[in-house]
Amino acid sequence: MKRELSLRFIAAFTVVGLILAPHVFGRFTVSLFNDIGMATLVVLGLVLLSGIGGVISFGQAAFVGIAAYASAWLNTSLGFSPWLGLFFAVGFTATSALIIGALTLRLGGHYLPLSTIAWGLSVPLLFGNIAALGRHSGIIDIAPLQIGGWELLSPVAAFYVIWALVGLVAIFCYNLLDSRTGRVLRAVRGGKVLLASFGADIFLARLKLFVLSAMIAAIAGWLYAHVNRFVSPAPFSLHASIEYVFMMVVGGIADLAGAFAGATVVIALRSVLQDVLPIFSDYAAQIQSVVFSILFILLLHHARGGLLKVLSPWLERKPVRNKVGWAETASSLKRRDLPAKGAPLLKVEGVVKRFRGLVAVNEVSFDISAGEIVGLIGPNGAGKSTMFNLLTGTLPLSGGRIEFLGTEISGKSQKEIALMGIARTFQHVKLRPQMSVLENVALGAHARASSGFLRGGLNLDSTEEASIFAEARHQISRIGLSQRELDNAGSLPLGLQRMVEIARSLASDPMLLILDEPAAGLRKAEKRALSDLLARLREEGVTILIVEHDMEFVMNLVDRLVVMNFGTRLFEGDPAAARADCGVRAAYLGEAA
Amino acid sequence: MSWDIAMILTVDGLGAASIYLLAGLGLVLVFSVTRVIFVPFGDIAVFGALTLAYLETGRIPPTIALVATLAALTVLVEIVRLIRQGTHAAIPRTVLNWGLLPLLPCLPAMLLAGGDLPTYLTVLLALALVVPITPLMARLVFHPIADASVLVLLIAALVMHFLLSGLGLLFFGPEGFRTQPFLRGAIEVLPGITASYQILLMIGASLVLAALFFVAFERTMIGKALRATALNRVGAQLVGIRPAATATVTFCLASLLAGFVGILIAPATTMYYDSGLAIGLKAFVGAIIGGLSSYPLTALGSLAVGLLESFASFWNGAMKDVIVFSLLIPALLVRSHFSTHAEDDAEEEV
């Protein structure tokens, strides 16, 4: 509470300081602040894209340039007002980003950042070679911004416009990150499979982030064109893009406030160097580039977390609005109608999976009826995990079919399967360690709500958010973790993290819950608690399939067992019969038994 | 476009491709052994070209001062590190390896430069002077973060390009140089189509060097150690190959290749201190076609880039760079489609 207060104090102090700044400082300093404001905008977008979404872009300046040129051209060639230019610039940049993003965002690994170099380099080259854009000399005499016939010619006038926009964009970003969409964006680095498990699409999430960051850069570019009233290719070069990355790393890559800190430090430093270096050399600009490069390299060596991380012991805080208080009054999210107990739910028919020559799953069939707990067991290498991946759509089938509620799901994507009501957990826990338990569980309810980018960013989603969080809190209380719902998920012991995963899958209101080795790494008491929870869920009508190693755990819990060995189904029946079955005993204990 | 023009463009394209071939081999080598995507390769090549130009015009190349500065800095950093670790005994060895060894080529250069030298001597000196630059820079920039993610190394490599081009201006000045061709005259390769001896020399030299490089990589012990490191770093370490040492050898080889690139390109194009990025990135497009791992595919990729550049410059001279860089995106798409990366992208922390 105290920390939140001190943070509000810092924010208020910054705002008051900014309002007073033009009256205290001279014209030159105000211009500097304007540069900082425009850079802050670009870096805000970059933090969203890179720090949150994990996509490093070396081409952000190109988007600034596209917008600046778009508005400049519209203004000088067609005489449109700068305010119309804003819509044109942002729209045009967003379209460019959509095309570039759609082409490149599926690239894996380091190929994606490399592709950003390609357009980061090509776009400014393009500006320098198009006659309509003035080639290398650029476009001059761009109209300044106007408000009601009053031209904002002086840096002081521009100052307020720039910082008002920075403020609005920052608030939008903060709200967005703390919304339904924002939670998905913050989970993007957890990978494709994690996102699909609660019905989100990683490509779409990245594409939205990419376009959003380009649009924010576009606002900066539009400001640049009408404040400086001159555009040329140089300020949008690859060099400039890398300077934005520098600012982001200086500030702290995963923190929106780092954008402001990084832009301020880097631009202030540049200004100081511009004053000092000419005393020593004729090549001041180049020495500046050398000094910046050396500083950047030292930063990478010694403080990759950035300034905010260095200061974090004094600035530690929770990134989330306190949504806990709302839960009491919230309307609950829509629930699915669960099928009647005993109705056929899942039908696995002759499923085959081949990895080249190796047959991992061979003609396996079994059924699951609503309301029962079925265990899928087998010794190491039996094909359990492969079967699990086939059921959840993580791997494609080589043969056979899987039906869920009479609909064939073999061939459907992980996301589609998740949306149909099959929830899963992971053998290697996939929680977002930096997000709270509450938010991690709230991710599970993603598909049960609908608020998008705009509603999230504009904070129009309170009612729905309250319902989501009420649901999340309900599921957390079910696993008995209410005391720790605001802790970072990464700070919990492994056993509890597995429980959080179960709560997350429950938040999706599943008909079938598939658990991948839920008891692994749990202590005896925890196992008992888990087993009690699963038994209670069965009473409430949830159907459960457990893929498990721990025989004792499974035997006491399940209604039926499917035993696999060497990719084939060895046995299907109740636990007592499995214990007595010769084939099962042979598989586990060897022929002699 | 007539047949004649197409042939002339093809010959030009082959000349450019030979440059990108050598540079592409260097990039693949560095990436596979050290995971560094070595964007500043072209800058080192520029240093080679400018050094040659200085030597040819009878001036003392500033490369000597550059190498001396870098060596002094590296020794300083290394000594501080050793003192911090408490391993004082290793200091003399470090001074020898990082301080004196890189200065070795400076001595003959100091003695000989300034006079009217025969061509072979200027070439040898330029090569020898360029070789220490990359390993020294890499020791300073990449060694302390050798275990970081590919992404962090890529950022560092990009920053290093700006550092090198800044240093290039400080040491070599802003003017551009073009050296004398090693061979004059031309030969009629097909009826009506001539190719200058210089271009044939470029192509020939590059093919011979690529072949030598290939043989050294396949047959020698050092080559095998590099390949082992490229395939499996931990495994190589377990059989006694030191990653830091292989990295240094790799950067020496890359430096040498960059030197050759500089010397071959110097008579063909006017080189400025900042011409390096374009050369490095075009070679890089070729290397990406080879997935940053396959040498034969890189050769094909370089050929494609060289020819595309040549034909693009005929079609629209100003846009040729845009066209070549844009090839990177389809190349990446194809690559990414065929490469088998993990089902679920691992999280890369910066």
Automatic annotation (TrEMBL), chain A:
SMART domains: AAA. GO terms for molecular function: ATP binding; ATP hydrolysis activity; branched-chain amino acid transmembrane transporter activity. It holds the Pfam family BPD_transp_2. InterPro entries: AAA+_ATPase (IPR003593), ABC_AA/LPS_Transport (IPR051120), ABC_transp_permease (IPR001851), ABC_transporter-like_ATP-bd (IPR003439), LivM-like (IPR043428), P-loop_NTPase (IPR027417). It is a multi-pass membrane protein. Keywords: ATP-binding, Cell membrane, Membrane, Nucleotide-binding, Transmembrane, Transmembrane helix, Transport. This is ABC transporter domain-containing protein. SUPFAM superfamilies: P-loop containing nucleoside triphosphate hydrolases. The chain crosses the membrane at residues 36-56, 86-105, 117-137, 157-177, 198-224, 244-268, 280-300. GO terms for cellular component: plasma membrane. PROSITE patterns: ABC_TRANSPORTER_2 (PS50893). Its main location: membrane. Residues 346-591 form the ABC transporter domain. It comes from the Bacteria. It is found in: Cell membrane.
TrEMBL record, chain B:
It is found in: Cell membrane. CDD domains: TM_PBP1_LivH_like. InterPro entries: ABC_transp_permease, BCAA_transport_permease. The keyword Transmembrane applies. One of its GO terms (molecular function) is transmembrane transporter activity. GO terms for biological process: amino acid transport. It is a multi-pass membrane protein. It holds the Pfam family BPD_transp_2. The chain crosses the membrane at residues 6-29, 36-54, 60-83, 95-113, 119-138, 150-173, 193-217, 251-272, 284-308, 320-338. Keywords: Amino-acid transport, Cell membrane, Membrane, Transmembrane, Transmembrane helix, Transport. One of its GO terms (cellular component) is plasma membrane. Its main location: membrane. Belongs to the binding-protein-dependent transport system permease family. LivHM subfamily. This is ABC transporter permease.
